[in-house]
Amino acid sequence: MSASVLLIYTGGTIGMLADPRSGALRPMDLAHLEDQVPELARVGVRLESVAFEQPIDSSDMRPADWVRIADIIGANYAQHDGFVVLHGSDTMAYTASALSYLLEGLNKPVILTGSQLPIGTIRTDAKENLITAIEIAAAKDEQGRAMVPEVAVYFEYRLLRGNRTVKVHAERFEAFRSPNWPALAEAGVRIKYDRGAILPHRSGSLVVHDRLDDRVAVIRLFPGIRGAWVKHALSMPDLRAAVLTTFGSGNGPTDPEFIAALREARERGMELLNVTQCVGGRVEQGRYVTSQAFEQLGVIPCADMTVEAAITKAMFLLGNDRATEPFAQRMVVPISGESTLV
User: Fold this and answer.
1) Taking the alpha carbons of 67, 34, 21, 122 in that order, is the dihedral positive or negative?
2) What backbone phi and psi angles, to 5 degrees, belong to 142?
3) Element (H, E) at 128
4) Distance between CA 13 and CA 10 in Å, rounded?
């Protein structure tokens, strides 16, 4: 029996068609997907589809939408071998990261893909991305298990771990990179999987979480950042955590006013996370004088996590609070391969 894959269309460029009269882009009816991609008939996979009633531009994605996607996967998990989520590229890395936490015990592929050009244009990258994502979602190993039992992003011939991806280009077809983890697969004449890079199969059943706490802020450090501004940014009464995107290996200014603003936030119980601004590399908090104050304040070093993975993990942990384990401890322990322990 051929594998079964569920397509979940949330919105984005990949599902747009140009109106023949006005040229304006409008969402495509998934029922007519094979009209635009006739090659799907030869893929040898049983396809079903579900779409958001109102497609969402990825810039408008919210945590509630991540939960909605996870719920759709959970409700259809037993009926399908894999899932392909069609999504706008701008915030795809955030959605992929969030899903990797929300889908605890995932043992089937959840492949996010999209495109830089609409599926109906002549030079579109949408067809290749879609067809290969479906093939990967349906792929099995020698034991009949899913080849890629995790959340991943497929774009322009490369399959990347979802919570390791960052969007690095607004125009090129190769829009994503995974700076701190190797590609899970490369698609050429054949799809070559790097089995050592793919998460192992997990024991137990799928658990779909449905709580995220979005009371999380991001503060990007820059030369000359004012302590008074940081204090104001951290003063929201219901703010529970803030991600500091720092310099190099996790460094920041030693300005007393800046440090005082962080200390005041910590004294109120706010969690502060240290994530490097660099595309690659990791936080080594305390290595230099310029990060020793962070260490003393209890700022949480996030190793080689991306900003997207750190933000969504903080939302997930705050929304699923376990009193027996401190937040800081849970933040540094990988849930689904989002960081590397040294």
Assistant:
1) positive
2) -65, -20
3) helix 126-138
4) 10
Domains of the chain: 4-208 (3.40.50.1170), 216-332 (3.40.50.40)
pTM over 0.90: yes
Catalytic residue among 13, 124, 245, 306: 13
Where does residue 23 fall: left (phi above 0), alpha (psi -120 to 50 degrees), or beta otherwise? left
Dist CA 187 CA 196 (whole Å): 17
Integer Cα distance of 297 and 256 in angstroms? 13
Residue 263 CA neighbour count, 13 Å, CB half: 9
Catalytic residue flag (residue 13):
yes
Tell me the pLDDT tens digit for each residue of 230-261.
Answer: 999 999 989 999 999 999 999 999 999 999 99
Whole-number Cα distances in Å, 120 to 13, 27, 52, 115, 292: 10, 11, 20, 11, 54
Which pLDDT tens digit goes with each residue over 281-322?
999 998 888 889 999 999 999 999 999 999 999 999 999 977
| Residue 164 phi, psi dihedral angles, 5° rounding | -115, 0
